[in-house]
Amino acid sequence: MKPINILLLGAGGDIGQSIYKILSEIKWIQEIVGTDININSASSLMFDKFYRVPKCNDPEYMAKICQIIDDENISLILPVSEPEIRHFFHNNIQSIKNIPLILANSHSLSIGLDKFKTIDFLRENNLPYPKTQRQNGNLDLDYPIIAKSNTGSGSKSIVKIEDELDLIYTTRKFPNHILQEFLPEDEGEFTCGLFRSSKGEIRHIVFKRDLLSGYSVFGEVVENESISQLLVKLASALNLDGSINVQLRLVNGKPNIFEINPRFSSTVRFRDLFGFKDVLWALEDLLNLEISTYEKPPMGRKFFKGFNEYIV
């Protein structure tokens, strides 16, 4: 394999840094170039080259990306941040200067980038989901309720509503949020990596996790037949091509999907270290290479999220 240079867009955060670590271990990746709207991040110290770029809706954004592609002899582009993934999807951009973007297939993007559409999709395909409704004035959910953005990811604007006063305050502050049944945490929350190749091979990994400020700070590899069967059904229903992240909780032993993120997630580095190398597989698949084999990690293996300090 001839060495190539790869460009990561929106790579200033933890996911970009995790993917950098993965790519740096692939022998045929020669140079890893990153971009972000903020240059003051640890990513600027890690990547071979790192550029500040405008927001993706800025008229100058695409010209800047094109210039980087030319200057750095880029062969592949991997969008990391959800705003950029959303921008490319809504503008039907699958390549830039004939350089392909590494993205999940359009159907998966369409479903995962719209939380209410996610619920409609799960309902239509007879897959388990929490009751969800828009803010229409007629509440059809029992307290507690979760209010969350219909677009975007992360937990910053997720609110747990305990009563009517909470509901009035939250819906005024977040008028575009959707309302969702609260799934109890007693039986655990799970984050799942799900990959399906262009030839239809499905691979998955399941972590039972603990969250802190929206980040997975602890996870344990589990095997659960109900979850595994659900993930296979989901990949087939989406006609998935690429890698996504699925979040769910068990309720009375039954997995309920509450989030589909059509991108690489914050656990991508842990998955890679456990042998679930979906970044590598996505690159190999796009380049028409044979996809590397996968040996499932032993049940019970654990990860812990830490932090590094950088001083210059």
Q: Helix and strand layout, with pairings?
A:
Layout: E1 4-9, H1 14-23, E2 29-36, H2 43-46, E3 49-52, H3 61-72, E4 74-79, H4 82-90, E5 95-96, E6 99-100, H5 106-112, H6 115-124, E7 132-133, E8 145-148, E9 159-161, H7 164-173, E10 178-181, E11 189-196, E12 202-212, E13 215-221, H8 225-237, E14 242-251, E15 254-261, H9 268-273, H10 278-286, E16 302-304
Detailed description of the structure:
The longest helix is centred in the last third of the chain and has 13 residues. The protein contains ten helices and 16 strands. It has a six-stranded antiparallel beta sheet. The radius of gyration is 20 Å and the shape is globular. The protein is an alpha+beta fold.
Mean pLDDT, all residues: 94
Strand content of the residues, in percent?
A: 25-35%
Structural class: alpha+beta
Order of adjacent strands in the largest pleated sheet: 15-14-11-12-13-16
Helix proportion range: 25-40%
Overall 3D shape: globular
- Helix tally equals 10
Rg is 20 Å
Count of β-strands: 16
Q: What's the main sheet like?
A: 6 strands, antiparallel
Which oligomerization state do the chains in this entry correspond to? single chain
Low-pLDDT stretches: none
Between the first and last Cα atoms, what is the distance in angstroms? Answer: 36 Å
Keywords:
312 residues, alpha+beta, six-stranded antiparallel beta sheet, four-stranded parallel beta sheet, 10 helices, 16 strands, 29% helix
Question: Brief description of this entry?
Answer:
By secondary structure, this protein is of the alpha+beta class.
